Amino acid sequence: MSDEVRYEREGNVAVITLNNPPVNALGHAVRVGLVDALEKADADDDVKAVIIIGTGRGFSGGADIREFGKPRPEPLLVEVIAHIEVTAKPVVAAIHGMAVGGGCELPLGCHYRVGDETAQMGLPEVKLGLIPGAGGTQRLPRLIGLKPALDMIVSGEYVGAERAAELGLLDELIDGDLKTGAIRFAEKLIANGTEPRRIRDMQPDDTDAKELFEKARATAARRMRGLDAPQRCIDSIENSTTLPIDDALQKEREFFAELESSEQSRALRHLFFAEREAHRIPGVPKDTPLRPIARAAVIGCGTMGRGIAMSLANGGVPVTVIEVDQKALDAGLEMARKTYAGSVSRGSLSQGDMDARMTLIGGTTSYDDIADADIVIEAVFEDMELKKKIFTTLDSTCKQGTILATNTSSLDVNEIAAATKRPGDVIGTHFFSPANVMKLMENVRGAKTAPDVIATVMKLSKDINKVGVMVGVCNGFVGNRMLYAYKTQAEYLLEEGALPHQVDKVVTDFGFPMGPFAVSDLAGLDVGYLVRKHRREIDPPKHRESYIGDRIVEMGRHGQKTSKGWFLYEEGNRVPQPDPEIEDLIVGISEELGIERREITDQEILERCLYPLINEGAKILAEGIAIRPSDIDVIWIYGYGFPRGRGGPMFYADQVGAKTIFDVMQRLYEVHGDLLKPAPLLKELANAGKSFADCQAEKKIN
Predict the structure, then answer these.
(1) The model scores a pTM over 0.70
(2) By C-alpha distance, which of 586, 578, 582 is closest to 504?
(3) I need a labelling partner for 86 at 20 to 30 A (CA). Which of 109, 146, 337, 408 fits?
(4) Catalytic residue from among 4, 8, 74, 125
(5) Is 496 among the catalytic positions?
């Protein structure tokens, strides 16, 4: 028997313990050990029941996804589960912590399941572009019903212990020591002469099945647009109602194999590792001591400020918001309350949770009231002089050790830090709007930011359910700097012959939820207009800028909020409609600029929008602004809606090939000039036949 699986006897109960830290992954040695232990229990006449339990943080985190895409030695997990299922003695899974993926399918192969209050069960394979491949789509609907099974499998979300018990996923909740309680449960089975109960022998209730599956497909198509795995999950669950279980299990394995080899799944698995890799920061060891964050403060209660305050409260951090006057403060806090109330009315938040979160958010108009905050996040307008003034005040007001963070989306964090006598305490925390919804935190490391400040802010990102990525200082950092390259070319395309609806369609067909012009309408064209106007005053642009967007704002069209922007919007409908008035404006501006309009293909639009974005990413990597290519991917997935099934811009670039992108950029540069000059790193990779992934491997951080 392998070291990863332990076997012991407790009276008439065999206890098989998974011992493969940190998450008891079901690798080959564990699978071998499980079969050996089951055979030992089968052969022992004194053993009347079997318990499978895990050590450490949880029952099992499932398969080792590093094995995906590679030959897997026998026994496979499906074979281990089949062995459990046919065991003549009752087998009980005792669950604490995570039982997810294969770590949930294994208990579904057991005859009974118990868990303590920490148990969390789920089948998140869809998030890796896969379906459960070891019987999950067949056993779960048989055990808990079609609708809850569809909800769990297609979303990939987990259920806690109480919900698992309500669904019948757990047969008993154990109060106290899990092992002791599981043995007691097994002894009851023995005393009552209870036979094994095999989920495969159950039949799912197919009442209203057709309607359920139609609704599930429509919802998945809307929420997970362009992704194959959610639809395959639904197909496989539907097979549980139409095929004998062995045939349905075979189809499940075929679906799994098909998806496992797909580009989408490779992309999603890349993102799985990329999120974890993002927390490895040069110069910040894993054991760096953290500063305590017991109380926070936010400067500003406008859209961004209150969203940040809500994010902190959502993570259980008490926060005080400061505003210039009581009227602005009251209005901001009331908007926070209304936002929470909207979530309650939609059923995504309980009234109790809303009340608890609002209790954590306080307000003040005096800096003295935030002197003891452990972190202060400034969230005012993008004006350097205003921010420097605020940081000077914070420097003289806040206690020693307070982290001073700026929510700037583009300004120089080092210049802001220089306004204080403690630049080591200053860091950028770039939240994305709406901050209480968007997952990304683009954290910005200044030249003098202390390692413990970096480590603490990255940990805070995780604590408030954000995806934190650390970047360096430059204009626009990573995300907005690349966005500028993308949007600039989109606007140039309009001057040369394209129209907004054509550009947006190409981008959404690629997989983005919205095109660049619809996004601008949603954000509010006046906001970007004011930022551009301010920036031109302090830092005149070095390249020609398109002024179509400015002219649209000057016509009184501010986007969705005025029902007119780049597009028209009907009342109660956010679907953008092309507007002949804007098309006439664009054609007229082309004439003013002396540009002869021409037919522009969808392929050119795709290349002109995406390849300059990737090219800018290559510059950012070479400058060390981003630590690794995968960090850029995470930023663009969570901050800008880059399609998950394509893995992010740098992963996508590797699928296209550096040589292909370089050749296109070189051609565009020769036609359109310096803005499209290929980055030296892109040229280097193209000439060497290498990829951005090779860059990441070469500079791996330990």
Answers:
(1) yes
(2) 578
(3) 146
(4) 125
(5) no
